[in-house]
Each structure stands twice: as C-alpha cells, then as structure tokens.
Design a protein that fits this description.
- By secondary structure, the protein is α+β, with helices and mostly antiparallel strands.
- It has a domain of 255 residues.
- It is built from eleven helices and eleven strands.
- The strands form four sheets. A five-stranded mixed beta sheet has the order 4-5-7-6-8, with helices on both faces. Strands 1-9 form a two-stranded parallel sheet.
- Helix 1 crosses helix 4.
- It starts with a helix and ends in a 7-residue tail after the last helix.
C-alpha cells in the first residue's frame, strides 16, 4: 500500500506543475476556441494516469520523482559478529536546491535518530499515509456510486418522448445520465424554444463524449484527492466542457438564436452545491460566464487556432516528459557502469564505489553480505 501511495504521490506532484501551466495558458488563450482547453485538460488527465515518464531534454519538470525513499544501512562489528540494520529515509528532489537543502537534513536526522530495534518512523509514516490515501479514494468512489444510484432511482418514472430523450417530473434541470448508453433527461413543462436549445446542448455533450470524460475525470480526482491542484483542474475542466458545448451550438445560431440560448441558460441556472460525479447537467456550472461568452461569441481566426494547437502540443511535450537523470559531475546520463558488488561501501544511506561516486541502484540493497565483508571501510 505504501509503495503504491508513493508512486501516486510522485505522479500527482509532477502533474501539479502541468495544472499550473494549463491554468496560465488557459488565461493566455482567451480568444482561442474553447475546445482547445479540453485538449489541455486531456493532457493533464493523461499525466495523472501514466505510471511512467519518458526522459526528454525538452521537459520543464523540475524532477520526475520529487519524493523517494532510500535504504539506510548500518554495519557494526563487535567481536567479529557482524550486525546489519536497514531502515529508510525520505529524500526530496523537488528540483529547487533551497527546498531540498532545507528538508533533506531534517528527514535524515529523523531517520538516524532511531536505532534498528526501534520502529522506523519513515516506514510507519508511509504505511499510515498509504492507508489514509486508500480510504479517501474508496470514500470518493463510493460517493460517486451512491450519486449514480440515487439519480437512477430518481428518474425511474420518466417517460421517453423520442429516442434517447426522457421527461421526468422529479428533475429540475436537464442532464445526461449513463456512460455506455447515455440518455438525456428533461424536466417536464419545457416550452419549444427551451427544449430545442437544451437538446442541442446535451447532444453536443454526447457527440464530444463528455458523458465519458467527466466520470473518468472524477475517478482520477478520487485517486489524487489529496492534491488541491487536481481539485482545481476538475472544477475548471467541468466549466470548460460546458463552454465548449455552448460554443459548438451557438456557432450555428444567429444573433436572435444566441439571445434565446442565453435566456435558456438563465432559466435553468441554479447554484451547484457539490461537485457532480456522474451527470452532465445543463445549467449548474458558470452560468454568468457562459452567458457572457455566448453573447460575445466570435469565430476565432485560423492563426489563433494554429497558435492554440501549437501551445497544446508544446505543453504535452514539456510536461508529459521528465528530465534526464544527472550524475555526480552534474552532466546528463542515461546509464552508468557500476562497480563490482564486493567493492561497494556503505555510507550516509547511499552506496559508493571506492572513488566516492554515488551508485543509486535499488538492487544493491540486497547485497548486504558484500558490505559486511568490509567492516573496516564501511562508514
């Protein structure tokens, strides 16, 4: 559990930089089509799902693994009886020297203050954090399932008026429910103008597969629930899919049609009390901004679209990849020649060859007998 949480933590921390970049780019590309924002959030979702990072010199990430653990090996030789103690310490590689220098000495002292006979605080903290993370993720997924079941029961008495469209007295705002076979649910008593605008909007959602992307986004939010930047990403993503659908509909309307569409938005506007996990609703997200966007809509110039697409591609290359590892001399390297196991020395929680070059390879943790043969040289 703790190893899984550490992996998720590193993915989430690296994705945080991408979220910040998308927020800034989202502001810079105000005049670009709203669907380009959805591509940006798609890159964020991909980053949150990928368990690996491809190395690239173009990467803008400070570190591909911001938090990792290292083995601390203590070797003692009283009266020719060797004893080996192994504990763990957390190492922060944020990419910022000031942060690393401030945190790592404290974490090292904490690990070294406990002997091998005592409980290792790092291991205990990792295990506790892993269980807390799992409990939070399960709670959010259970909330999503409960919300879906509640909505299914709520629309059980609905009437199908046309293929895929249902009218229900129990709903106050139009929404889409279902992933495999999405259905549009409308409140009863809609006039013809409102019905036409609502159906155009909801069908745009289905064409764009938003009824799949939004639940998938909530699953990722459930896994990364501890990261406030992922919550921000989900909220903005939910807004942007609504903006994109509005834009898709009004691009085919005249000025009078846009005014009617805005009135329909206002008619179904109501405050959103909680983050919606399942349904894609018509009038719950950013209604004021959406009305303003509808009334001031202008088709983007081709050069703006090209710039936006280039920016999307650049963000993907720079933030879906990770920096190349750096050796002790400060130069990039992709592979290292390791010394023989019988020449390893143990010191300060890392392994060194006789020339004091760090050999940071987990496999050597299991070569403790080779270290024990050199008690006089172990530090």
């Amino acid at each position: 559990m703790s190893a899984g949480f550490l992996k998720v933590l590193n993915i989430s921390l690296t994705a945080g930089w991408l979220v910040l970049a998308v927020v800034l780019l989202r502001f810079a590309l105000k005049k670009a089509p709203k669907w380009t924002r959805c591509f940006l959030w798609g890159i964020v979702g991909l980053r949150l799902m990928l368990p690996f990072t491809i190395e690239s010199r173009l990467s803008l990430l400070p570190s591909a693994e911001p938090v990792r653990t290292e083995a601390v090996v203590a070797v003692a030789s009283p009266d020719d009886d060797f004893s080996i103690g192994v504990s763990e310490r957390v190492v922060v590689s944020s990419g910022f020297t000031a942060i690393d220098n401030a945190l790592n000495p404290v974490l090292t002292r904490t690990s070294e203050s406990y002997s091998s006979a005592e409980i290792d605080p790092v291991s205990a903290a990792k295990k506790a954090a892993g269980w807390i993370w799992a409990a939070g993720a399960c709670a959010m997924l259970m909330y999503s399932a409960a919300s879906y079941i509640h909505m299914v029961r709520k629309v059980r008495a609905s009437i199908e008026t046309e293929p895929g469209v249902y009218v229900c007295d129990e709903v106050k705002s139009p929404f889409i429910l279902g992933v495999i076979r999405p259905k549009i649910y409308l409140p009863s008593g809609l006039d013809e103008r409102s019905r036409r605008n609502v159906l155009a909007h909801e069908r745009a959602h289905i064409e764009r597969l938003d009824h799949i992307w939004k639940p998938l986004g909530f699953v990722l939010l459930s896994v990364h629930w501890f990261n406030p930047l992922v919550w921000l990403a989900f909220v903005l993503f939910s807004r942007d899919i609504e903006f994109a659908c509005d834009e898709k509909v009004i691009s085919q309307l005249d000025a009078e049609g846009k005014a009617e569409y805005s009135l329909t938005l206002l008619a179904f506007s109501r405050p959103q009390r909680a983050i919606a996990a399942c349904p894609v609703a018509f009038g719950e997200v950013g209604v004021k901004e959406r009305v303003r966007s509808v009334l001031h809509y202008k088709k983007s110039a081709k050069w703006i679209v090209l710039i936006a697409l280039f920016a999307v591609a650049a963000v993907g290359v720079c933030f879906l990849t990770g920096p190349r590892p750096v050796n002790a001399a400060g130069s990039e390297t992709s592979s290292r020649v390791l010394p023989p196991p019988d020449k390893l020395l143990s010191g300060a929680g890392s392994y060194y060859d006789p020339d004091q070059n760090i050999v940071d390879v987990p496999e050597y943790l299991y070569l403790l007998p080779n270290i024990a043969r050199q008690p006089d040289t172990a530090e």
